[in-house]
Amino acid sequence: MTLLGEVVRFTFLSLSITSIYVLVAIGLSIVFGSLKFVNMAHGALYLLGAYVGLFLAYSNSGVEGLLASYAPLGLEWGFGAALLLTPVVVGVLGIAMERLIANPLYDRPMLDQLLITFGALLIVQEFVSIGTGPSGFTYDRPAWATGPIPLPGIGTASRWRIYVIFLTIALLAIILLFYKYTDYGLAVRASTEDAEMTRMLGVRITRPYLLIFAIGAGYAGLAGILGGSTFNVDPQMGIEIVIPALVIVIMGGVGSIRGTIIAALLAGVTFSAVTELWPSMATASIYILAIVVLTLKPQGIVPSVVLEE
Amino acid sequence: MSTDFDVGDGTTFSWERWDRLKESELFVLAAATGFVVLFPWLFVRAPVVSDLLLGYGTLAKSIIIWSIFAVGFNLLLGETGLLSFGHAAFWGLAGYGAGWVAIYSYGHPLLMILAGVVLAAAFAAVVAPVLLRLHTVYFAIVSLAFAQTLFWLSREPFNQWTGGENGLTRMEVEPLFGGVSVSEPLPGVLGTLMGSWMYLLIAVSFVLTIVAVHRIKKSPYGLMFKAIRENETRSTFIGMNVWRYKFAAFVMSATVAGLAGALLTVDTAFVGIRRLWWSASGDVVVMTVIGGLRTLFGPVAGAFVYKWFGGVSDGIPQIGQFWLMTLAVVFAAIVWRYPDGIWGLFTRIGGLLRSLGGDRT
Q: Could you tell me the pTM of the whole model?
């Protein structure tokens, strides 16, 4: 393969990994920045997204646990339907999470939020594990989402990676436009700057919060499918994504969407590069990156909000 | 609680005396010793009680080792309010340190423990300058990042020294004193109560840890930790060197975690890679919170509940698979509604009984 071909292949690889990170991290980042709510349970949404997608798309014969006697289990609506429906389902679950878990905790110390949402993540993880068994599942993507696309004069690129990247760009554009140009977005941005003042001016921020939480949840759910078909699907995947996602949010600077995207890019490129050169250190490379970045800039790459206790 | 100097006539029992007595170091020493001596007997050998609890010797040792770990962890989280999600690093590293001494030098149990503790403390001192500049979530996540980095490093790049996925084996734990192996039973009544020399070693470490942590908590030095927990900015304003106290708390906590990790290696003569995995950090967080933050014996109760649930319920069909789920629910509920944990429950019941008995303090 030519050098150019290698470069193109690596670019697509790292961008597709970045995409999954950014889709999970964006919801976390907005909620963290505007509500000062740190949500470890965001990983549960990613986990649920992967499993909901799995059961919407296929008939799964590998089901263990309490549901083992119902195997094969699933609706067999196909991969495309799962891609469309899962974000909606997980978005609704996100609304439930906001009302039941997040809302009562907004005024609590960050330490409590961290611990309770960690507990919630464990509960969901165990729920899934008991229901469907601790071992993993795989996504069999249909023909339209697999195989290479020929790029004339350069080589080929994975069709699936290209889809993932463009889907992510479109979704990012939607949330950024929402954030910048709608009244709801304005309310959220205002309360990121100064929540007390915003409320004092008579802006009702509960609805915008709920909506932004649901969108973040939907994105995490979609990322569950994308990530599930790129990495793996098992009950541990929630915590395995939320830690890098939190690392990315913190590295980027809490409250800054731009920072989150930059940090996700950095993490995606680092992860892919280390995967090529030294696969066993790929996961650790993100942590090392975070340690280096936060040692140099303790407030993150794009510091915007000063966090207090 | 009353702190009256009027003690009554000196012969009859009074609650004021009791309140002062139970805070004294000698009482804590006696209580910890009493507990740690009687616990394995009650748990493993006593009639009725041990049958009800389904306890066994290995689990008793593991509970006390994890108790030490949790007490050390609570010294950081409970006293200074710093949540570390990376205590697995100290726990695991000390385990390896103890193993390395046994393999490359001489496996005297005390030497192994010393090596483990020193390694854990040294690692804490090295990472502290990076970690202690960060707050709450930043601190939690970056401490986790350090621990996970250690895990991946010891999994492959350094598997020559750590044994990678297979763990560190082929270590020889030498006799303790005068040719007594740690696995030998203790003589006489001690043997009936506590079992092996290994348990005695763990028990002594436990008592020393409890007394040391108690002394730190009661000292003016420990008061500084609380000041930092309550308000760090204000602590700076009144002229405290906040960083120095946080550093001290962090290294002390890591040292105790290291002691526990090294003890586990001496006990099992094996170090598995999973000790560095984040779930060890998660376990100790759950134990400490369930038991009761900011209390001395709370983490011990938490470690008991956690290990007992995990170790015993596995053997019971139907409910075995729900144990972690149950604990997670209890954990979330405790943080949410009842931050004093199990130990707080005990204190409250005690207080209730006292008020029934006519004590109004």
A: 0.90
